[in-house]
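Entry for the shared binder. Reason: the reviewer on the internal report wants the predicted structure included alongside the sequence.
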Amino acid sequence: MPSFHDFIDPETWQRIQDTFAKATRLEIRVVDAERRKLSTPSRLTRFCQLVEGSLLGRERCFQSDLETILLCGQGRCCVVTPCHARIIGFGVPIIVDGEHIATVTGGECVAEPLPEEFVRQLARELNIDEEELVSAANELEVLPASVVQATGELIGEFLRQWLDAAKQRQQLETKLEQVRALCEVGKTMHTDLDVDRTLESIVDAVMRVLKVTAAFVMLIEANSNLMSIRAARGLSEETTRSARFVVGTGIVGHVAATGESAVVPDMQQDPRVAYRAVDEKENLRSLIAVPLRGAGGVIGVLAACTPEPHRFTEDDLALLTTLAGQAAVAVENARLYQQVAAQVKELSAAYDALQQAQQRLIDSERLAVIGRVASSIAHEVRNPLTAIMAFASTIRDHVVQLAPAQTAQFAETIVDECRRLNKLIDDIRDYAKPKQYHVETQPIRDVIEEVLSFLRLDPTFKRFPIYRRFEADPLARYDRDRMKQVFINLLRNAAEAIDKDDGKIEVAITEAAGQIAISISDNGKGIPPDQRERIFEPFYTTKGEEGTGLGLGIVRQIIISHGGRIAVDSAVGKGTTFTVFLPSVHDAQGRDNGDAPDAAGQSLSRRAE
């Protein structure tokens, strides 16, 4: 059975787990089917520490956890149950290939404050100091079971996606290793016609890819019913040199006689075993063997073994069959050289395709940022939720004492935080699933003029002049609303970057070789190099609580969807230029107005530029 840490290394999971616990204010840990800890518990409450410090309490907690694990093992996607001490906990099964390999448990909260008499009675039963346990009970988080359920489901969904990605990565790595091995064998056959060296390269490939302890090629001797080992790894020199096997006798003999492959998880349980002395001497327990087929029939056997019971997969069998085919080609006839070369070419193409697939997987950054994204979302949502809960609780608990004006003020704060949450949700939705575009052919200058006219009313843009440098008036195909969103965002960023009295912004349009360049430049504080590499990452922001970190990501998404790209050039203390490149439709003659002043009558000459 695979282990939880086969897919997530302990340090990475501990960081993710601690982040979830901090964001949700719930205790979280991972245990196996026997409740053995696979991670250090995060945010363990003092109440539970006191209870588990008692022998009887520890036994009861152990039983409660086992019941949760048992329910998870029955196929429940998320189990929420109270324990013997009325503490609400959740359990999420971790399922891999139908096997329940571990369980994420947590919670350590209550749906409502525990009655003091119940806590004191529990303290007496467990021989714990009553006052200390009552104090610890008052520290417990009070959360509805539905919130605990939602948290468990969120963690479960996160783990499912992580495990799916990890499995895909492992499968991709396995496929890449298989292709590399096949390519190496093919190259050996291509450059070296020596049969023994080719067979040794095949055996080496089997050892590396299948991760076995022994592999060998047996060939049927000419004019004989015996087989001898021609190439081997992991066997003693004596066995390799002197062992002989009869065709039709034993498992490998059966493969040679029938031409049928054999996959034996435990040879001690197989009645066909005929060479137990060799198996015991070489410490061989499991076996996978495939025939080497020549033009006239089976000419030998390629096999691999492990010292313990082991289940070989269909992929293992397919790989071994492929290698056996190459071994048969090398042994039987050098005239098939051209056919082998063609096979190598196909395998090389498959190798390149898999490398490209791996690069796309890396470029998507899903595995690299999933923990960071989950943490950012939790953080962004938690802040307004905390404010909403605080003000709502104040209204609920002190509604009689509050003056109408105070109640209205608190309610307005709750509404503002709800609007903030709604905007965050809209930003995330726009980033994750962009809206449909209504593309039309129109002058790019028109939408920029419209944006500048709109921003003219914004007090931020009255502090400094905005210059225009329109050297062209080209047409482009774009969605007007989406493109307005792009330029409003870039202009606001430019304005926010200016922290001096002589600030200025310049908007320029140029065209060359069928490509439109719209640049927005400011003479603000600039972007440090270490931040410049991350400004388009989702949820990365330098604006503190004011920003979600999605603005520039959405901007880039919109531009790419229009067939364009965005570039940034910045120097600390001197300013920043964002340049949007879009494909032009054709030249629009007679639309270039040269240098146009902004609303304040300012202008820059082209010569000065």
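Summary line for the report: The first strand starts at residue 27 and ends at 31.
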